[in-house]
Amino acid sequence: MTLRITIPEEPTDAHRDAVLAPLRAYNIARAGAPNIRPVAILLTDEQGSHIGGLWGKCVYDWRFVELLAVPEDRRGGGSGKALMAEAEGIARANGCIGLWLDTYEFQARGFYEKLGFEVFGTLDDHPIGQKRFFLRKRLNEVPIPVS
Question: What's the pLDDT tens digit per position in 33-78?
């Protein structure tokens, strides 16, 4: 059987699924079902509009925080800390052993470190001249206090 490489001009979900299917089958055969559970924790303003929050998922035994956003004019009021505390609580309730995330040099590394996260990897020049940091927090550590 001869294989060839094709590159679609506009990739679709079907293209992604074609790549994902054999990878998922391989992973499940070796590590079991990942039990992926998406999680959304939303910030809602006085009018009931969703203006930010946290998006992530539990996969295997870790909680991945994919996105965390607090509007710039609302930062410093404890919302980010409260979102992370909720994410940690959900992770614990789902039997996760830790949380991980990534952040750019110009974003919130210090914020996450204050919450007990540690850098486990760095990608230099992403974007060029900056760094991207990968952080983790094992849940045998003290939970994030909510005040």
Answer: 999 999 999 999 999 999 999 999 999 999 999 999 999 999 999 9
Closest residue by Cα to residue 60 from 38, 36, 93, 40: 36
pLDDT tens string 14-24: 999 999 999 99
pLDDT on residue 141: 61
Q: How far apart are CA 123 and CA 31, in angstroms?
A: 27
Token duo for residue 100:
């991980």
Quote the DSSP letter at residue 145: P
Helix, coil or strand: residue 85:
helix
Q: What are phi and psi of 19, to 5 degrees?
A: -80, -40
Residue 144 is predicted with a pLDDT of 66
Helix (H, G, I), strand (E, B) or coil at 37: strand
Taken in order of first residue, the domains within the chain and their CATH numbers are: 35-138 (3.40.630.30)
| H or E element, residue 29 | helix 13-31
* Ramachandran class of 112: left when φ > 0, alpha when ψ lies in -120 to 50, beta otherwise: alpha
Q: Which residues contact 119 (CB under 8 A, 6 or more apart)?
A: 109, 113, 133, 134, 135
